[in-house]
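Hey,
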Amino acid sequence: MFVIMGANGQTGGTVAHTLLEQGQSVRVVLRPGRDGQGWYSRGAQVAHAEVQDAAALSDAFAGARAVYVLNPPDYASDNMLASGRAVADAYRTALDANGVRAVALSSIGAQHAEGTGNIVTTHILEQALRPLGASFVRAGNFMTNWLPSLPAMRTGVLPTFFAPLDRPIPHTAVADIAATVVRELRCADSRTIELAAPADYTPADVASAFCAALGQPVTAQVIERAQWGQALSQFGMSQAAIGSWTEMWESFNTGHIRFEGTPERGQVTIEDFAKTSAAPVQAQQ
């Protein structure tokens, strides 16, 4: 049996669906109070646990062949790193109690212990689980991070924190992350995989891809540094979260956030992603 954390999220949901389609036994772990009927109907088992509750996680991980875990940043917390450590420690306790290995979602830049904002939570997770023989999938910038800008792109502008506009950034599609996680869950060895799309893309490349997908001009435009706080506050973030995001974007733009080695390349291009993402928009027009 494979146990999947974050099954109602992007990567966890895709991993769980893929395993079920392959005929594998799956148990999804949801937060207490979340309805699991949809997962029951697909043939999955359902457990409930808070991500910082080691005892509940231990029960949820019982009998697992392998577990997929992730350490999502707690944007509501005034101390995101302390929250991340609590989650990582709970995972470590539960995995160790069951003698089960994990495959963890990590990130480009996770080799750094500081200076990467939100991404430090993935470093914390790697440090906690590496002694247990876990594997880590270090993903590039999620392509889905561009989706909140779709309304702006329909007006012809793609706002971006990445600068300069001609700097290539490693990207990764959720489908490629899930495929890699499923492969690693079925392995017995432990390793770190750095994962990127078939090519690295500049903000100008992303704008071009959405231009073709939307059938209208789209131009990338850098959000000036002085406007970052205001831009991020529109998402309802705390000041601590805004500070963390700001540090992350600065670290991308200085090149501090990068892969350690040569990444494995996935299948989904930014053009594929843009076309799929724009289809619902086009259908409404």
